[in-house]
UniProtKB/TrEMBL annotation:
Region forming the signal peptide: 1-24
Alphabetized Pfam families for the sequence: PEP-CTERM
Start and end residues of each Ice-binding protein C-terminal domain: 164-188
Entry annotated with the keyword Signal: yes
Keywords associated with the record: Signal
Taxonomic superkingdom: Bacteria
Source taxonomy: Bacteria, Pseudomonadati, Pseudomonadota, Betaproteobacteria, Burkholderiales
Identification of the protein by name: PEP-CTERM sorting domain-containing protein
Length: 189
């Protein structure tokens, strides 16, 4: 009875590992990360010291494939809604994408914006570095001396993420683990 249970456990482990390997190798696994952006001010130009920066640890080499937004922005005159932006980048800023939800709305005030962009289709998808950190910097596109220029009153950003595919060495370690479990099962029989 114990041998049969152990053999079934080994088989279940082997099948589970095979499924994980198949999923990782196809690259079809996509996750969504929702980021609440309520009450974040847009201060100065990109890179200014007073800007709000969120740092999110996504895991090494995670790829950013899409971006959805559902936000309400408020621009203080003389700033315009079109000037408020958020820039997504790797921690070393080697890869970056900027989003201005109110692009084209050249007026002050408050307004709701929503949308979606498939970064892969646009050739804008990118991966965070080996440290796994994604930076979101809230800024303005035009300097006018006002601080803050505007406010992300409410809403969220949704990021489509694809985890990094394991390296071949990881598959080798998984195979060694399965062989060790199989050998232990044979010894017990």
């Amino acid at each position: 009875m114990i041998t049969t249970t152990l053999a079934r456990s080994t088989l279940a482990l082997a099948l589970g590992t095979a499924c994980l390997i198949a999923q990782a190798s196809t690259g079809t696994s996509t996750n969504t990360l929702n980021v609440d952006v309520s009450h974040i001010a847009s201060q100065g130009l990109l890179g200014a010291s007073g800007n709000t920066v969120l740092s999110l640890n996504l895991g090494a080499n995670t790829q950013i494939n899409s971006l959805d937004w559902d936000v309400t922005l408020q621009a203080f005159a003389p700033s315009w809604l079109s000037e408020l932006q958020v820039t997504l980048s790797s921690s070393d800023s080697s890869s970056a994408v900027s989003l201005a939800p109110g692009f084209g709305v050249d007026q002050a005030g408050s307004q709701h914006f929503s949308g979606h962009i498939d970064l892969t289709e646009q050739g804008l998808n990118f991966s965070v570095g080996t440290d796994g950190v994604l930076r979101l910097e809230f800024s303005e596109r035009s300097a006018d001396g006002l601080s803050p220029d505007g406010l992300w009153q409410s809403g969220r950003l949704s990021l489509g993420l694809a985890p990094a595919v394991p390296e071949p060495a990881s598959y080798g370690l998984m195979a060694l683990g399965l062989l060790a479990v199989g050998a232990a099962t044979r010894r017990r029989r």
